[in-house]
Design a protein that fits this description.
By secondary structure, the chain is of the alpha/beta class. Helix content is about 50%, strand content about 10%. It is built from 19 helices and 9 strands. The longest helix is centred in the C-terminal third of the chain and has 22 residues.
Length: about 475
């Protein structure tokens, strides 16, 4: 990750980081102008978390929150390169393969333009990859029938229909003619999980397999709680063996077709909704005041004809030394014992863990760090950190809720660090007790509330960079 001085002097980094944070270049420059140039860019983002308008790397499921401005600016910037090279973004990326990082665009594409000729592969590649993500993302949302280049994106966003919109969520809202259909399918799916089927949900929660789900076209993970939960439930119910999903349009693009009895599933793209003001123009930094979601309908690879791809797996497990470094940097107090107990003491603010030697078997490392991460999520609940209600009587509703936060947070973090982990038995029992008194819709709201707190706790411990 580069420091602010490098960011201020590189137009490529400016466009890349603007896209990755969903903020305009001007916004990033203004917010960081009084911070020392040697400050790491990620540290600058951390400093904004205590302000009324925090900036962070956008998660995939939060991409609809992005401002349209950086996307327009990058599209205009890169469409010039496409025109000079006679190639689209994907073709430019293909042309950079197997080239040395210091090779110039003059040598790779024969460019003679004063602005582009001496640009090296290492300068341009990260920006191209970031913009390619946005092209694929817009395509996945079905914004346009033809979207393959920066020029296409520029043309789309400059349409009169989108001339006054500020965020990508507004573009989708104006363009989502099929929303009524999507919503009916989603409501139908929820309706099937009523009280009559709560036993099935309970049984599934007692023996879950925490598999990640991926888009077959973009290979992006569906990592929001709602998306993961519904895809997992539907996979379990129908016996799907694949964790690849895609929209009908995406399957067709890959040369596949849906089977006659293909079952739809809902995935969710979340975004915030700004408060409406009649007379005052909303600034880019305005604090948001609501929450919305866009639903897309996807189908599992098990019900697709012509798809021969393997299931998605973890691409690379991060070294556990990274987690150890974070523990040291956060000054987490950990005491090891031979008693085999793991817990967080909120009064004295420390974690007790069994000695590492007590974790045996081939998955000992994953078991140890998975347990530790669970307790670290509890640790974030201290009033000096995320300030959650912790330390309640064992078995109480508030105790159960905090356990769910810790379990979900540990699942999120184990995914970020490349560690797989099943939910704890106690948490599963708590969820089952809720299901006995709540209908499924209320349960979903409770789960989502816990997930948001778990996400906040996870971000306090570790926020992955966009290219991790």
């Amino acid at each position: 990750m580069f420091n602010l001085a490098t960011f201020r002097n590189s137009v490529f980094l400016q466009h890349e980081y603007a896209l990755a944070t969903g903020r305009s270049i001007v916004n990033l420059m203004t917010r960081s102008r009084d911070i020392h140039g040697k400050t790491n860019f990620s540290n600058f983002l951390i400093q904004t978390q205590s302000t009324s308008s925090p900036i962070k790397w956008l998660e995939y499921e939060e991409s609809l929150d992005a401002s349209v401005k950086p996307l327009k600016q990058a599209a205009t910037f890169l469409s010039e390169l496409e025109a000079l090279a006679g190639a689209t973004i994907s073709e430019l990326l293909e042309g950079l393969k197997r080239k040395h990082s210091g090779t110039t665009l003059r040598k790779i594409f024969g460019l003679e333009s004063e602005e582009w000729a001496d640009v090296t592969k290492s300068e341009l590649l990260p920006l191209l990859k970031e913009f390619d993500f946005w092209i694929r993302y817009l395509d996945e949302l079905g914004v346009s029938e033809q979207l393959t280049s920066a020029y296409d994106v520029q043309t789309l966003l400059n349409m009169p229909l989108f001339s006054s919109v500020k965020r990508l969520a507004d573009v989708i809202d104006l363009n989502s003619a099929g929303w009524e259909h999507d919503q009916k399918i989603f409501d139908n799916l929820v309706g099937r999980l009523d009280k009559e089927n709560s036993n099935f949900v309970s049984e599934w929660l007692t023996s879950p397999v925490l598999e990640a789900h991926y888009n077959a076209h973009t290979h992006r993970q569906y990592d929001s709680l709602f998306s993961w939960l519904f895809l997992s439930l539907i996979s379990e119910h129908h016996g799907f063996k694949s964790n690849f999903w895609a929209t009908k349009k995406q399957w067709e693009k890959m040369g596949c077709e849906l089977s006659v009895d293909a079952k739809p599933a809902a995935v969710f793209h979340h975004f915030t909704i700004k408060a409406k003001e009649d007379a005052v123009q909303l600034a880019e930094d305005e604090v948001t005041s609501g929450f919305g979601r866009k639903v897309s309908i996807v189908y599992n690879a098990s019900q697709v004809i012509g798809f021969d791809g393997a299931d998605a797996v973890d691409v690379k497990v991060k070294p556990l030394s990274k987690l150890d470094e974070i523990i040291k940097a956060l000054n987490v107090r950990i005491e090891h014992t031979i008693e085999g107990k793991a817990f967080y003491d909120p009064n004295d603010d420390y974690i007790t863990m069994p000695q590492k030697e007590m974790f045996k078997g081939k998955d000992a490392t994953k078991a140890y760090y998975g347990t530790l991460i669970h307790e670290m999520v509890h640790w974030t609940g201290h009033e000096s950190r995320c300030n959650r209600e912790i330390g309640h009587e064992f078995g109480s509703a508030k105790y159960a809720f905090e356990e769910l936060v810790a379990e979900l947070g540990s699942c999120f973090l184990c995914t970020r660090f490349g560690i797989r982990k099943l939910p704890g038995v106690n948490s599963v029992r708590y969820i089952n007790s809720w299901l006995s008194s709540l209908n499924v819709k209320d349960t979903m709201k409770k789960l989502e509330s816990a997930a948001r707190k778990a996400n906040q706790a996870s971000n306090y411990i570790y926020i992955p960079q966009r290219d991790d």
